[in-house]
Amino acid sequence: MSTPKRSTPSTAAPPNPAVFPPQTIFDYHRTIVGYHGTRRATAARLVDGESFGVSENDDDWLGHGVYFWEYAPQQAWWWADRRYGPDDAAVVGATIRLGRCLDLLDPTNMNLLKAAHADMTTVLAVAGQHARENANTHKYLDCDVFNYLHAQLARQDFRYETCRAVFVPMRSGGGMARLWNRSGVFEGGHIQVCLREQRNILAAWSVRRDGRYGKDK
Fold it and tell me: Consecutive 10-residue runs of the chain (217 residues): their mean pLDDT?
C-alpha cells in the first residue's frame, strides 16, 4: 500500500477559537512508569542519560514524540522483538511526570481534538486539498490532527507535555480483537504515552524480559 501524500495545512492560518487552550488546565502532579522498545546499543545510551529519539513517522497515531507503553513492559518487548529481532531488542523503563497532559481517558479532552480535526479539514478544503485517511495499522489522519493541534496551541504559547490514550489494535483482516463475542475486553489493548517534553523524564533504567529492573545475562 502506498503512503498517502502528506496534506497537513500550514499553521500560518489564524487560529480557530475552538482550538484555543482549554480554560481549565490540569497539571497532573503524578508520575507513571513507561516502557520504551529500542535497540541494545541505544538502550545503553539512554540509561546513561542520552536524550530519547523523537518519532516523526507520518502515521504516529498520537502525533510526533517519544512513545512509551504505560505499565506494560511486555508490550514494549513484543514491539522491540518484532522491530529489531530478539538478539538486538531492548527495553528501557522510565519514570515520567505527566504534567500538562492531553489525557484522552478524560472525555472533555475529546472536544479539543474534534475541534482541531474540524478546523484542519476546513483549512485544507479552502486550499483545495483533502485530509489523509487512516488505514488499519497506519494512522495518517490521526497523526496530522495531533500535529496540527499542537502547532496551533504552540502559536498561543501553550504546550502539552504529554499525551495519553488507550490503544485497541485491529485484526489484520479488520475488526477489533475481542476476547469472545461482544466482549468489552480486547486482546492487546493498552495505554500509550506520547512524550513531548523530555524534561519530564525523571529516571531511566534497563528492563529484563520478565519486566524487572536490570539486564538479562
Answer: 54 54 68 98 97 97 98 97 97 97 91 94 94 91 97 92 91 79 86 97 98 92
From the number of C-beta atoms within 10 Å of its C-beta (0-12, 13-18, 19+), residue 96 rates as buried
Query: In terms of residue numbers, what domain contains 36?
Result: 28-106+161-207
* CA–CA gap between residue 124 and residue 9 (Å, rounded): 6
Residue 120 lies in a domain: no
Task: Check: pTM over 0.85? Answer yes or no.
Answer: yes
* 137, 170 Cβ separation under 8 angstroms: yes
Q: 175 lies in a domain?
A: yes
Number of domains into which the chain is organized = 1
- Asked if the structure places residue 81 within a domain, the reply is yes
Whether 118 maps to a domain, the answer reads no
Residue 6 near residue 133, CB atoms below 8 Å: no
Q: Three-state DSSP class for 183?
A: coil
Give the residue ranges of DSSP H helices in the chain: 40-47, 73-84, 108-126, 140-154
